[in-house]
Amino acid sequence: MPLRAKVASSVSRTAAALSRAAGRGDGSVIGGWIGLKIDPDLLAHLSAGRAIALVSGTNGKTTTTRLTSAAVGVLGRVATNSFGANMPSGHTSALAKAGSTPYAVLEVDEHYLAQVLEATEPHVVALLNLSRDQLDRAKEVAMMAQLWRAALVRHTDVRVVANADDPLVVWAATPPGDPARGIKPPHVTWFSAGQRWHDDSWVCPECGSTIQRSGEQWWCTGCPLRRPEPHWVVEDEGVLDPSGAWHKVSLQLPGKVNLGNAATALAVAAEFGVRPVDAVSRLGIVTSVAGRYAQVDKDGRNIRLLLAKNPASWLEAFDMADEAPTLLSINARDPDGMDTSWLYDVDFAPLRGRQVLITGDRAYDLAVRLDVNDVPFQHVRTFDDALRAVPPGRLEVIANYTAFQDIRAELDRVI
Amino acid sequence: MSSESLRIVWIYPDLLSTYGDRGNALILARRARQRGMPVEVLEVRSDERLPATADIYLVGGGEDGPQALGAQRLLADGGLHRAVAQGSVVFGVCAGYQLLGTSFFAKGVQCRGLELLDLQSDRGETRAVGELAGEIDPRLGLPPLTGFENHGGRTHLGPEVSPLARVTAGVGNDGATEGAWRGKLLGTYSHGPALARNPALADLLLRWATGAHQLPPLDDTWSDRLRNERRSAVAAARA
């Protein structure tokens, strides 16, 4: 590593340690930010010599990254940005902190995928899904797919692991090659993790025709784009691998969506030569991911934290949550997006019959939404008020990003 | 009303439903049912024929490609024009508002609109993103408009339409006026579930559709709190 990069890497680690010692944060961003100021190529320098997997998509990135790290860990030490700091400063911090490791698994914000592909030259990139998220500041969904596709055209040597159930992902993962210049399209391994949310993919990204669906199949009515045959499939409580062998997956994380994340992790690890039979037991070690799915006992209540940031992830949260009293908390601060319109893309009907409490900066937006949805609720001002309002036993908490962090802070930053 | 029940058509949810547009159909249906009116909500996809005999048509927001495609299909279908000729109500939001006019821009290209409202839209230099508020045309007798806007368009009104509101916060059409209306057609840049924050506007559409001069009041406690909170937030942001 060049001297400048060594200095930058060392300063970066020190800053991260200071940030943690001062109680100012996880230290997962600040160190990398300072390091990149000293050496803008630091991420590339830190990536050199490691076999890297990138994980990107609208939902499930953090959890899939965690599961993938566990699976790749069969082979040796893995550097990873496990706190969800998923922009280049976070990647830089994570790699600097980990020191020399043969492997790295990095969660990447979908907007930064092209940049991070360039800097890290990964062996594998996993593309999970694309759906509407914070449209007041994020790119429109179809434009995101276009950016991914354009990035992959420049990196046709990377191995792609992609979701066969999401038309936008399939299109993004299959840019045409250029035989005249000897460029082959990237090699893709397809997984099927199911997709509950379909409302961003009724229109073909290739030709604009309608996309039809029947069962798990989908196809464009105007061009050849259709669901590829997946190599990795969730089946019952396990995963079918490309050889047809079925592996039971016993996770501590709830819901079918996490079985899908486990299938993705096994598929990515297999690209490094990890056999699913060796990796599958390691997936069960993961209990919570940066507070997500964490369980805390307080005042006789067993509180479980579920993060839901956009319509697709709310549907998944309802699937994971038990039939128990449920607290919903909504903010609309900068990291959440300032627009609460997405509340109407979520059907809250699964909550009928449960005791529902609401809180957060934008509780009134939620109140109007639940009223229209015929879901009775009670508004509480604080998390403690919510605890007092429910009987002893399980309390499910479903919150969007900053609301989730607020509640996590009340519970001593549980991880 | 055209039949036994109030018929609401949500036009092309596969194309024109960027962010919570379903809310407007849900809110109209609920407010009608609470007054004892039977309601039918039809979601008509862009590969289906548009029925010409419904009472209220909703045209939602969309990205550039779907907006242009939606306008083309509506022009080819002709059902919305027949419905308007028969006196149906049309409520357009954001991209759906623009395409009711004579022309709009999508992906840098000028596209032909439905020519149902005398207005045309082009591109502003900046994108308008944030809270939108305004004093509504007094002839409509409604409390102030509140909403969230997210669009790159600027809309210029012709003499045959009236502005829906005079802007007090945000951009709307051009920083001075917001939205437009004529007869029983009304459009706004207050995007997505605009009626969630404006229940009186929902009731105006229901009155236009039913011919009722008044509707029994409903319990709007939560909407009122939401409106007050948003009004305070806009005032605080300005202070």
Automatic annotation (TrEMBL), chain A:
It catalyses: beta-D-GlcNAc-(1->4)-Mur2Ac(oyl-L-Ala-gamma-D-Glu-L-Lys-D-Ala-D-Ala)-di-trans,octa-cis-undecaprenyl diphosphate + ATP = beta-D-GlcNAc-(1->4)-Mur2Ac(oyl-L-Ala-gamma-D-O-P-Glu-L-Lys-D-Ala-D-Ala)-di-trans,octa-cis-undecaprenyl diphosphate + ADP; beta-D-GlcNAc-(1->4)-Mur2Ac(oyl-L-Ala-gamma-D-O-P-Glu-L-Lys-D-Ala-D-Ala)-di-trans,octa-cis-undecaprenyl diphosphate + NH4(+) = beta-D-GlcNAc-(1->4)-Mur2Ac(oyl-L-Ala-D-isoglutaminyl-L-Lys-D-Ala-D-Ala)-di-trans,octa-cis-undecaprenyl diphosphate + phosphate + H(+); beta-D-GlcNAc-(1->4)-Mur2Ac(oyl-L-Ala-gamma-D-Glu-L-Lys-D-Ala-D-Ala)-di-trans,octa-cis-undecaprenyl diphosphate + L-glutamine + ATP + H2O = beta-D-GlcNAc-(1->4)-Mur2Ac(oyl-L-Ala-D-isoglutaminyl-L-Lys-D-Ala-D-Ala)-di-trans,octa-cis-undecaprenyl diphosphate + L-glutamate + ADP + phosphate + H(+). Residues 55-167 form the Mur ligase central domain. The active site is at D339. GO terms for molecular function: ligase activity. InterPro entries: Lipid_II_synth_MurT, Mur-like_cat_sf, Mur_ligase_cen, MurT_C. It is an enzyme of class 6 (ligase). Residues 307-403 form the Lipid II isoglutaminyl synthase (glutamine-hydrolyzing) subunit MurT C-terminal domain. Pfam families: Mur_ligase_M, MurT_C. Its EC number is 6.3.5.13. Zn(2+) binds at C204, C207, C220, C223. Keywords: ATP-binding, Cell shape, Cell wall biogenesis/degradation, Ligase, Metal-binding, Nucleotide-binding, Peptidoglycan synthesis, Zinc. Pathway: Cell wall biogenesis; peptidoglycan biosynthesis. The keyword Magnesium does not apply. Belongs to the MurCDEF family. MurT subfamily. The lipid II isoglutaminyl synthase complex catalyzes the formation of alpha-D-isoglutamine in the cell wall lipid II stem peptide. The MurT subunit catalyzes the ATP-dependent amidation of D-glutamate residue of lipid II, converting it to an isoglutamine residue. This is Lipid II isoglutaminyl synthase (glutamine-hydrolyzing) subunit MurT. It comes from Micromonospora parva.
TrEMBL record, chain B:
PROSITE patterns: GATASE_COBBQ (PS51274). Its EC number is 6.3.5.13, 3.5.1.2. Residues 7-198 form the CobB/CobQ-like glutamine amidotransferase domain. It comes from the Bacteria. Pfam families: GATase_3 (PF07685). The active site is at C94, H191. Keywords: Cell shape, Cell wall biogenesis/degradation, Glutamine amidotransferase, Hydrolase, Ligase, Peptidoglycan synthesis. Substrate binds at R127. It catalyses: beta-D-GlcNAc-(1->4)-Mur2Ac(oyl-L-Ala-gamma-D-Glu-L-Lys-D-Ala-D-Ala)-di-trans,octa-cis-undecaprenyl diphosphate + L-glutamine + ATP + H2O = beta-D-GlcNAc-(1->4)-Mur2Ac(oyl-L-Ala-D-isoglutaminyl-L-Lys-D-Ala-D-Ala)-di-trans,octa-cis-undecaprenyl diphosphate + L-glutamate + ADP + phosphate + H(+); L-glutamine + H2O = L-glutamate + NH4(+). Gene3D superfamilies: 3.40.50.880. Pathway: Cell wall biogenesis; peptidoglycan biosynthesis. Forms a heterodimer with MurT. The lipid II isoglutaminyl synthase complex catalyzes the formation of alpha-D-isoglutamine in the cell wall lipid II stem peptide. The GatD subunit catalyzes the hydrolysis of glutamine to glutamate and ammonia. The resulting ammonia molecule is channeled to the active site of MurT. PANTHER family: DETHIOBIOTIN SYNTHETASE, LIPID II ISOGLUTAMINYL SYNTHASE (GLUTAMINE-HYDROLYZING) SUBUNIT GATD. Belongs to the CobB/CobQ family. GatD subfamily. This is Lipid II isoglutaminyl synthase (glutamine-hydrolyzing) subunit GatD. It comes from Micromonospora parva.
